[in-house]
Model the fold of this input.
Amino acid sequence: MALIQRQLEQVIRDHMFLGKAIIVLGARQVGKSTLFEQILSSSDLQVSPEQILTLNCDDAQARALLEHADNMNDMRQLVGIHKIIYVDEAQRIKGVGIILKLITDHFKDVQLLITGSSSFMLQGKLNEPLTGRKFEYHMYPISTQELMNKGGLLRIRQSFESRLIYGSYPDVVTGLDNPRDILLNLSGSYMYQDLLSMEGVRKPVLLEKLLVALALQVGSEVSYSELAQTVGTDNKTVEKYVDLLEKCYIIFRLNGLSRNLRNELKKSKKIYFYDNGIRNALIQNFNPVNLRQDMGALFENFFISERIKYNHYNGRYANIYFWRTKEQQEIDYIEECDGMMTAFETKWNSNKGRTTFPKSFLEAYDIKETVVITPDNYLDWLI
Done:
């Protein structure tokens, strides 16, 4: 399958040469470099190839070139005739924020394009130096809308069960190789090698055990103390690792909504994966849909992660939660936008009885809409 145009491409084109750095953050292999390469190779860019400087900071010489340009004389030599400076994997550069601030402040006609794989390293280095000087975007595995734009409804329907099992990483979706091999490589230490380079993360085996435990609990409420017992560590270590995995764009948390009712669980949380394929690779289960016992959890993870992509790419800012009471009443997913809430229940088997939303929840909150999401109607909320 040919290259899929990403939704961020036009957004970035529209924001170039406005005097601000453009930063794209995301997990490894989601297509950040391909996105910028596509933009830079465009015939309507109106910048010649000689005016584009590409620095891949996985390369030691590229890192050294930037790290040593810490004064204006060296910076002028570095910038030279270039109108675009593209810095790939910027989190690897020492003092990256100050260096990029120098370029943004003193070379107004130069466009900085920056990618980073690990937000916990990159954002900490960029936020203060580049305050007010950057456009920042998150990039995810291929979204349903992106696939729709490329292949139409037929492609969406044909690939649905495959995406539930193998996920939506670009190399998986475009069929460049065996999806199992791609995912087993991604779900190994490659995906979080930046995290393992941190001083506070010294136990890769513990990290892998935690990821497997989280993969087995998708769709269920998680307890840090129970996870700690399962993987053989303490609560604080589990909490720290979960936070870092979230900042690596591998997982994300949903906190429990708790404002009005005494029986609501106030500190509850669920943890999902940004990609179903990574989740299934961690537990090494690529069985087809009709042979699985976890399709409810897989469909729930798929829909919520796709909805997060949809909201981000379409500029919808929503607080997201789930809801549960001590009596085990539960709602899978809630979006709060402009003070109004939409409640979603996911249901893999739409023939399994009628789904009702708890009366206590409906009376306690301003509910705009309640929706039961099934394989028959999920597209209505993703495209």
